[in-house]
Amino acid sequence: MTILFKNNFIGIFSIFVHLFENINNEEIYKEYYGKQPVEECIVALFMMEVQMIRRAYECFFVEKPSPNSKMFITHHIVGITYYLATGLAVIIEGIWNLGVFNKDQFTSFPPLKNFINWNTMIAISLFIYASYHQNVLHKHLASLRPINTSNVPIYLIPKGDWFNDISSAHYFAEILIYFSFVILTKGMNLTLWLVLIWTIIGLSTIARESDLWGKEKFGEKWPNK
């Protein structure tokens, strides 16, 4: 939870705090929840939808996890919560402009020319670029486990594409994807900065553990990247 130093809460959870407050802070909430334009909300929602659909497709039809791999239930819950929270985070700071607080406020779809600006173009380009490479990297990881040996633990050093330069390249691509959301909002969306920081910390920790495991299993063959 992030604190705005006016004794008011901002961020994902502040909307729930607002429901239980008796004082009238309408102007403060309007100032915060209305600062993200409708155009950015629409593009961010579309990008997030593409990201979730692609990742769901890869989980079901691309990735080939080891039969011995296990996930703690807490990790599963954190993962689901993360995507639910991120889906809200991409619009939370523009939610006032979407008519959520005022049912009588109608939000029409903006003209297409409003979407043509430098931050939207750069954000979408980076999003597509990073998403494409992450998909390629995930397919490459899946190819390391042949179909006829999918039930046998096989460990190989991934090579090709970004793996030639970065050992955990698929995690790096994920970070770039969420950085594109920050670019979309011109760095003005604090909630998306928190999402990006969470992503960097979480994936960096996992990448570090994977690197230690690789060095332990493959020794000098494991690349130092």
From TrEMBL:
Segments crossing the lipid bilayer: 77-96, 116-132
PROSITE patterns reported in the protein's UniProt record: S5A_REDUCTASE
Domain 3-oxo-5-alpha-steroid 4-dehydrogenase C-terminal span(s) in chain numbering: 73-224
One GO CC term, this protein: endoplasmic reticulum
Membrane topology: Multi-pass membrane protein
Protein's UniProt keywords contain Mitochondrion: no
One BP annotation, GO: dolichol-linked oligosaccharide biosynthetic process
Domain of life (superkingdom): Eukaryota
Pfam families reported for this sequence: Steroid_dh
Designated name of the protein: 10029_t:CDS:1
Lineage of the organism: Eukaryota, Fungi, Fungi incertae sedis, Mucoromycota, Glomeromycotina
